[in-house]
Design brief:
This is Alpha-beta hydrolase superfamily lysophospholipase. The chain is of the alpha/beta class and 300 residues long. It is 40% helix and 17% strand. The chain has a single domain, classed as Alpha/Beta hydrolase fold, catalytic domain (Rossmann fold). The strands form 2 sheets. The chain has an 8-stranded mixed β-sheet with strand order 2-3-5-4-7-8-9-10, sandwiched between helices. Helix 1 (2-27) crosses helix 6 (187-196) and helix 3 (119-133) packs across helix 4.
Length: 300
Amino acid sequence: MNRVLLITLVLALGVVVFSLAAGEWLTRPARAALGAPPPGLPGEALRIPYGDGQQVSGWFLPGRAGEGAVLLLHGVRGNRLQMQERARWLQREGIGCLLIDLPSHGESSGDRISFGRREALGVQAALAWLRHKLPGEKLGGLGVSLGGASLLFADRQPELDALVLESVYPTITDAVQDRLVNRLGPAGAWAAPLLLLQIPLRLGLGVHELRPIEAIRSIRAPVLVASGTEDRSTRWVETEQLFNAAPEPKQLWAVPGAGHEDLRDFDRQAYEARLLPWLQSHLRKAPVAWGETDLGKMAA
C-alpha cells in the first residue's frame, strides 16, 4: 500500500512539475533579431510606439493606390518572417502589407505571451499607424492562430473592411485541452486545469478574458474563417462554433486534410485562389465580382 501511495505521489508531482514548466515556456517571450526586410521584399522597417514605453516592430510594404492594405499577424512563438510569403504574394497583386511582431515576439516589447489579450494593444497601434499612413485605403486584417485572436481582442481598432481568421481557438480552455490531449492522450484532459490555473498568476488575466468566441460577436467587418479539417489543436467543431458566433457577412473555409499548420504552405494554389478574390472584393475601391477569372487584372 505504501508503495502504491509513493508511486501515486511521484506521478502527481511529475504532472505538477510538467505543468509548471509548460506554463513558463508557453508564456515566455519568443525573441528574435530580424532587422531590415529580406532581399526581394521591398519595404521599410519601423517601430510603432504605444502605451507606456511599449512598441511593435514591423515591415511596411506599399501597394498600389486603390487596392487596399492588410495587417498580417503570425502565430504563437513566431514572428513577422512567418508572414513574408503572404506579403510577397499580396504586394505582387498590388495590396499593401504591414507585417509586425506581436508583443512579446520577435523585436517587439512585452514580458509575457498572453494568448491574444495584451497582444491586441500592439495590434491596435499597428492598425492606427496603417490608417494614418494610408488614409484613403480600405484596410484588412489577416491573423493566424494567436494573430487572429489578437485581432478579435483589438476592440478599439479602426474599423476594418475585411477580416481573415486562420486556425483561431474559440476559448483558452479549448486551446489548452486540445493541445495537451494531442500530446499526452487522455491524460492531457487531467493536466489542463493545472495549466489554466496558472493564467491568473502568470498573466493577471482571468480565463474568462480569453474567449475569442465572445469577441467575434461584436466585429463589424466581413469575416472569412478558415481552418484545416484535420487540425487537432483547434478542432473543426470548434472552428464551426467560432464561425457560428460571428455576425454576417461571413464565410467558412474548410481546408481538407490540413492540420494546425500554415494553410498557405499546405495548399498555396487553393489558398491564393480562395483569398485573393475575397480580399479584392472588400478592399478595392471598385470591387471585383466573385466570378472574375483574371485575378491578375488590377484596377488602374
